[in-house]
Amino acid sequence: MRLGIIRSKRSRKPTTPDKAPSSWLAIAACGLMVVGAAVCALAYPIASQRSDSQVMAQAASLPDYSKKIPPIPWAVGHPERIDVPSVGISLPVIDGTYDVSTKTWQVSNEEALFDASSTLPNSHSGNTFMYGHATNHVFGPLLKIQPDALAIVTTDTGFVFTYKLTSHEVVDPTNTAVLNYSGPSRLMLQTCTGPTLSEYRQLFYFSYVSHSRSL
């Protein structure tokens, strides 16, 4: 009898453990995730509004840059006036052109002329070419200029360029090679050596010194 009982106990199949607790844990975890997502969805707009408010407040505290002039690679402008104080020249500047058919330059009895095909006054490079009659009212006083004299060019952009006389030469009226310049910024002024257009041309070369802005 005892042996039969023992065999009976050994032949009994093990029971399957109850899975109910695991199912409840999974359901609880899913519930927490849903609640967390809902909380995040409600909290995000509030946090976003606070962040936007902080950004706007910070932006309002910055300086007003709307009135500041943006930087440019170098100073440049169209010439409006030229002054050579040492010889009493102070003239408005207008654009002048060269007539290929007549081989003559446009001239004025009251203004200096800027060769519009030359380089605009700037602080970088190129040849700015201006010319005028050899009269007392225009560029005639240049014939009395001294070394290191200063020439001042005011532009439409508010830049004021200062140049210093470095050299001068007399050339034939047909000599256009002097216009083929490549190098640092300079100013070239031209007038006649006498009162008539048939005279030779006197050229004055001014090197760039500095610039400022009057605005």
Keywords:
Sortase, Chain: A, 215 residues, 31% strand, 2 domains, 8-stranded mixed barrel, 2 helices, alpha+beta, 10 strands, disordered N terminus, two-stranded antiparallel ribbon, single chain
Number of helices: 2
**Proportion of residues in β-strands:** 25-35%
Strand order of the largest sheet: 1-2-5-6-9-10-8-7
Q: Give the class-level CATH name of the largest domain.
A: Mainly Beta
Helical percentage = 10-25%
Provide the CATH superfamily of the largest domain. Answer: Sortase
Annotation, overall tally of beta strands: 10
Q: How many domains in all?
A: 2
Q: What overall geometry do the principal axes of the alpha carbons give?
A: rod-shaped
What is the correct CATH architecture of the largest domain?
Answer: Beta Barrel
The helix/strand class is alpha+beta
The Cα radius of gyration reads 43 Å
- Tell me, rounded to a whole number, the average pLDDT: 80
Terminal residue distance: 121 Å
SSE map:
Elements: H1 2-10, H2 20-60, E1 79-84, E2 89-96, E3 98-99, E4 104-105, E5 112-115, E6 127-131, E7 150-155, E8 159-171, E9 186-192, E10 201-213
Parallel strand pairs: 2-5, 6-9
Antiparallel strand pairs: 1-2, 1-7, 3-4, 5-6, 7-8, 8-10, 9-10
